[in-house]
Design brief:
Oligomer: homodimer
Shape of chain A: globular
Distance between the termini of chain A: 55 Å
EC number (chains A, B): 2.1.1.314
Order of helices and strands of chain A: EHEHEHHEHEHEHEEHEHEEHEHH
Largest sheet of chain A: 5 strands, parallel
Strand content of chain A: 15-25%
Structural class of chain A: alpha/beta
Family (chains A, B): Belongs to the diphthine synthase family.
Largest interface: A-B, 58 and 57 residues
InterPro entries (chains A, B): 4pyrrol_Mease (IPR000878), 4pyrrol_Methylase_sf (IPR035996), 4pyrrole_Mease_sub1 (IPR014777), 4pyrrole_Mease_sub2 (IPR014776), Dphthn_synthase (IPR004551)
GO molecular function, one term (chains A, B): diphthine methyl ester synthase activity
Protein name (chains A, B): Diphthine methyl ester synthase
């Protein structure tokens, strides 16, 4: 059996009781470690589980899935995923390959940022499609997120923006020379995300949002160190929410007064918050 | 401290290790039991936790929140919610009241149907806003869900339809006479949901979807007894997916070939599936 087990969002104790039981008795335990991270390291997990954990990087999962699935017809293999196994990213390929090999599959769900973002006080019913923001480079500034946000904005919905993480990435030079040397990990911040959003609005000028549009920055959601900051995109582009992981929600115009009451408590500046609320979000 | 603790979706072992530790040491433990249910009963939870659990029905939460919050400034109160505490429904009111009383709050996230629905193989990035479907009566057939689905359809997105549950409801007669007598619980099925959707399309005729539009019916998501059925709305309106809880996803036109490969394995009838796929979902 292939078990896809969600680890939740923050630390080693966010695994479910059911998930932990399977981890303890599985033949092998893999940790998917390239689409998201917990706020604790592999060693912490290993000591909590009382056993070894094998790191599965992108290469292993995408080209070496048969190694992961070896003997899974008879034995239990645990594949650990931060968040929910089918959350912000999916492991459809691995499951399809397991199906081909007639390996039974079970997934153990857990918290995902897609639902835990509800702890901002914004109603999950009011969210449109989720978008991703990658690190811009000098010559790669993909703006497809802008078109998606535009669709959400056109029907008044909030947009959750998930931000890039770079783990075990090679520099172009090292890649070109075939050197397996990796860059230190990088995690996008709310400030970088807000800046890139404003940069693209400035370029495309379709008035999807503005520097004084309201958004909520969220850091370390689901942990004791969770921090929320609500403000204009301009304010958030200068806010420091501390260590990763971050995400951002752009407010939709359908925002409700109850949502306002909730998020105003995290306002960077209540005056600018109230001004923007009145300008854009106060319904007819 | 007020702890809002998600229980996940299926049984008593879906609580997180962190959540269970708090339940074991809290002063009082409440179970919110009117917006969703686990697939196990209160007694099972109590024996797993080794302690009593107080059922909090709608009345208690909406009008008696100060009883729940009593002494929470000094003592730990656990408020258990099926799914994620801020998932399909929110307990914003309770949190706002706790804030007024200067009670610190922490939420322990868990799986929600909003992310666990990813186990259908449909990409969560391709979902628009979530809608709710209530039981129609002879003179109450609210169709606001139809307008919301129309918005999602217009931009090619999937729609998750959460279906009604009726727990501890009074009949109109008993309510009028002030008799606290409650009806047996009722849980909407995928078949009822698909039928009501077709009924409203038939009435409004805005061609938001059709009898041969594709959808995925999901039952008992996150449990070992999870069952998925993919088919036309017409087929699903006659499908029997067994015991609750059910939900349904209407496919958006932006559906990807990888999603098709995944869900075709659950097709009620591969022939009608392929025909509808070709008709509506095969991109240019």
């Amino acid at each position: 059996m292939l078990y896809l087990i969600g680890l939740g969002l923050a630390d080693e104790t966010d695994i479910t009781v059911k998930g932990l039981e399977i981890v303890k008795r599985a033949e092998r335990v893999y940790l998917e470690a390239y689409t998201s991270i917990l706020l604790v390291d592999k060693e912490k997990l290993e000591s909590f589980y009382g056993r070894d954990v094998i790191i599965a990087d992108r290469e292993t999962v995408e080209t070496g899935s048969d190694d992961i699935l070896q003997d899974a017809q008879e034995k239990d293999i645990a594949f650990l995923v931060v968040g929910d196994p089918f959350g912000a990213t999916t492991h459809t390929d691995l499951v399809l390959r397991a199906r081909e090999l007639s390996i039974p599959i079970q997934s153990i769900p857990n918290a995902s940022i897609l639902s835990a973002i509800g702890s901002t006080g914004l109603q999950l019913y009011n969210f449109g499609q989720t978008v991703s923001m990658v690190f811009f480079t000098d010559n790669w500034r993909p703006s497809s997120f802008y078109d998606r946000i535009k669709e959400n904005v056109s029907i008044g919905l909030h947009t959750l923006v998930l931000v890039d993480i770079k783990v075990k990435e090679q520099s172009y030079e090292d890649m070109a020379r075939g050197r397996k040397v990796y860059q230190p990990p990088r995690y996008m911040t709310v400030a970088q995300c807000a800046s890139q959003m404003l940069e693209i609005e400035d370029e495309r000028k379709e008035q999807v949002y503005a520097p004084d549009s309201l958004a909520v920055g969220a850091a370390r959601v689901g942990s004791k160190e969770q921090r929320l900051a609500c403000g204009t995109l301009q304010e958030l582009s200068q806010a420091d929410l501390g260590p990763p992981l971050h995400s951002l929600v752009l407010l939709g115009k359908r925002a409700h007064d109850l949502e306002r009451d909730y998020i105003r408590a995290f306002a960077i500046d209540e005056k600018t918050f109230d001004a923007s609320w009145t300008k854009y979000y106060q319904g007819p």
